[in-house]
Amino acid sequence: MGKPKVGFFDFASCEGCQIELTNYGDAAFLELLNHIDIVEFREAMSEKADQLDIAFIEGSFTREADRARLEEIRNRSGVVISYGACASTGGINALKNHQDDYTKCVYGEDANMPHLNSQKAMPISEAIKVDFQVLGCPMDRTEFVNIVSHLLHGKEPVVPNHPVCVECKRNETVCRFDDGDHCVGQVARAGCGAPCPADGIPCEACRGFVDDANEEALKKVLVDRGGLSMARAESKTRMFTANLRSDR
Ligand code: SF4
Ligand code: SF4
Ligand code: SF4
Fold it and tell me: How far is the CA of 89 from the centre of ligand 3 (A)?
């Protein structure tokens, strides 16, 4: 059997996840390239393919007009993987779902131009079936390699469902709260290795929340221990999870 044919596609995004991939000089990723055949990748090549074994899709589903292109990719791909927060959860794009008149605010009198006409930012799973997700903003490169490697070996990839605090403790990182700061790592989905607190930066849950996250308790901790106003605590919990919330 030949190498699996792999394609990369982008929708509403900053393309940071693609850049993350093309900048990936790690030995594990270079080894992975020996086992896959990249046949479509706009950021790096102009060729196209008819059929794909794996399609990686970056970016949110924000325009009904994109549905047909998503379905076309789905129809010619064995496995579809959303990579990055924008594609997997709606990501930071979904902040606009909570704003009125955002196009006018950004584009002024040009806000009515047809190409700016978009709907709520949603994960691509709102339009097509997605088989697996690589989380993070940008996507986590190690998780990307792990998921592809699992698939190549016929195994189901496992995405952690425990909070970032666990990884922080394993790393013996000083908690941001003990440094007079705040953090949402108590309910953020682990898998990144907790690099942000290790660098003295609060976790913002770019990988989304664990299942059944207690957001009310999180807000209380951000106010009581982090010293944030309730309004700021509310926006902190929304940064990367705006599309996962009941009030979306
Ligand atoms: S997940 Fe983050 S880095 Fe990736 S495309 Fe979206 S905004 Fe950019
Ligand atoms: S810094 Fe954040 S992720 Fe780390 S232990 Fe404290 S609350 Fe949890
Ligand atoms: S520590 Fe939090 S914000 Fe940083 S990469 Fe991990 S999940 Fe994302």
Answer: 15
